[in-house]
Amino acid sequence: MNAPGAGVELSDRQRLAWLQLLRSENVGPATFRHLVNHYGSAEAALQMVPELAERGGARRRIVIASPLDAEREMETARRLGARFVAVGEPDYPPLMRRMDQPPPLLAMKGDLSVARKPTIALVGARNASLTGMKMGRQLAAALGNAGFSVASGLARGIDAAAHQGSLDTGTIAALAGGLDKPYPPENIALLEQIVERGAVISEMPFGWTPRARDFPRRNRLVAGIAFGLVVVEAAKRSGSLISARLAGEMGRLVFAVPGSPYDPRAGGTNALLKDGAILVTEADDIISQIAPLLDNPLQKPESFEEPPSFSDAQPPSDSDRDRIVQALGPSPVLIDDIIRHTGLHPSQVLTVLLELDLAGRLERHSGSAVSLLPVDL
């Protein structure tokens, strides 16, 4: 696709078209990528979205963000001292670009060079103990002094301690809402300090107030920006464990600080250790595992600039669409398995999945899996 290569910036016109496409209905990171791969540019893709959604069975015309909407959001970003950074541009966090479905555009504010440094994520319980808070601050400070940026999610408890401990050396806060809608309110003063000395990122639109279902997306950013993720305290049912799972799925290292079996805030971390997480009692436990990766970065998945070809096969027929829909169900299946099962060309399968996605009939899962959503009657 016409994504920028390393160090190549979008033009203002391209950036505006990217934002317009990304803010259109049913267009997430994977859909965005396939659209631009298929049609060569966001501008061309915008023209085709309604037709594709209709082919996929959309019951109404989907909403396309207007150029004026994109311009207004771009102006809001400028007014607040933020900017939209595209995947592949110099300021885009390097490891985040290696995610399965990297955000095409990140809203970023602060010292963006902090996000280009080797990063370690540090998360944990919101209702953290004093000991856990102290451990979080000490680990973050030591990691910062060793040359790492420390990423977290600006939540109460361990997240806040991680940011506080690394304020002087470089910290990154990922938000679940727009950059102008930080949460929780009691950490707004901390956020202002982070903007002065670190970086704040979000993939959500400006003006977006975070909902409960937005926090796993925030956790994905925290996991994706880092070489490894450290959990200091976490109950057995905790958002920090979602972050740890996401980190593991991305091939990141997962670390955990052990805790008392009598403290429910250690139930999740102790469970992580039983499942193979790396035990942490001091920062050197983390640094010794991360250091070898710095010269030999995490394996690179298919990059944003190396898309599957959509040009070397016939467009899918109606019977091809039927075969693909019949192969789908409510349980996630790998796209490669759909290709093998149907015997169709990969570009034909990807095109039909794109149509279903834009019609709101497809759900995408980690690991290149998809499932069919029920049709509203």
Give descriptors for this structure:
377 residues, alpha/beta, Rossmann fold, Arc Repressor Mutant, subunit A, 3 domains, nine-stranded mixed sheet, three-stranded antiparallel sheet, 41% helix, disordered N terminus
Number of domains: 3
How do the strands of the widest beta sheet line up side by side? 1-2-6-5-4-3-7-8-9
Average pLDDT over all residues: 91
Poorly predicted tracts of residues? 1-5, 299-307
Radius of gyration: 21 Å
Global outline = globular
- Count of separate DSSP helical elements: 14
Please give the largest β-sheet. Answer: 9 strands, mixed
Task: Specify the helix fraction band.
Answer: 40-55%
Give the CA-CA distance, first to last residue.
37 Å
Order of helices and strands: HHHHEEEHEHEHEHEHEHEHHEHHEE
The assigned structural class equals alpha/beta
Task: Report the β-strand fraction as a percent range.
Answer: 5-15%
> At CATH's second level, what is the architecture of the largest domain?
3-Layer(aba) Sandwich
Fold-level CATH name of the largest domain? Rossmann fold
Number of strands: 12
Task: Give the CATH class of the largest domain.
Answer: Alpha Beta
